[in-house]
Amino acid sequence: MQYQQFKHCGLNVALNMLSGKWKPIILYHLFHQQEMRFTELWRIIPKVAKKVLLEHLKQMEAHELIIREEKHTFPPEVYYRLSERGKALGPALSALELWANEYAADEVTELKQRKKVTA
Amino acid sequence: MQYQQFKHCGLNVALNMLSGKWKPIILYHLFHQQEMRFTELWRIIPKVAKKVLLEHLKQMEAHELIIREEKHTFPPEVYYRLSERGKALGPALSALELWANEYAADEVTELKQRKKVTA
DNA sequence: TGAACAGGTTACCAAAAGGTAAACTTCTTT
DNA sequence: AAAGAAGTTTACCTTTTGGTAACCTGTTCA
Prior knowledge:
2 copies of one chain form a homodimer.
Chain A: H1 8-18, H2 23-33, E1 35-37, H3 38-44, H4 50-62, E2 66-71, E3 77-82, H5 84-87, H6 90-103, H7 105-118
Helix pairs in contact in A: 6-7
Chain B binds a DNA duplex through residues 20-22, 37-39, 42, 47-52, 54-55, 70, 73-78.
């Protein structure tokens, strides 16, 4: 067997930073759109509570995955975008996505259908 | 930017299957040792409660990441090993590990030190 | 007879994660 | 003066996750 080159320390650190119900979607959008405003994210993500979205963004900022930029215009505008550290996650996230589609395709399509039904 | 080839559905499925306090360690040991008995895992992982370890193993079995094999000897022996789906996670886990060591090295070493101190 | 062992269950509890709804701030627009 | 907008905070509640400790099952061995 190859691919045994992981220890659980690094893995734990990475998974901790990714754990949170809405973080995959947040990352997804930031990877595809460069930068987004708070309300834009809030509107685009199905049913997050403002408070929860904010908590997630704060955590991700604390983990230095994203960068928060506040423009002191009025009404204030706050932009979020990926940091270098965040961008560097790309390959790993692609690898997970690839695995899900190759080896857990049933669960993926199941999830998509559940979303169609409920949304 | 490259590496944008992920949607959040597959990513969600993958991260859900990996979420659980002790799953990284469990995977780590199964990747390195082929198969392990329940008690062996229980003893090797610092401070898991039997109940919790069992819950994690059951979830992973339900997700078809691992395979449970019971031998009806006495005292009974139960072996856990990776399924094909589980083994296929290797590259993605390596990628996460790699990322953690390259881009979040400080958190990784911090975690290692905390373990030394408390264990 | 009864302790010991491996794997598992039960009842019960504490902490963390996620959610709802309302209010606050600071300015602009009407 | 009143209403509105963007981002944030507060108080409160429910669900999920992780944890403790005792107990059960069958067989082997002293």
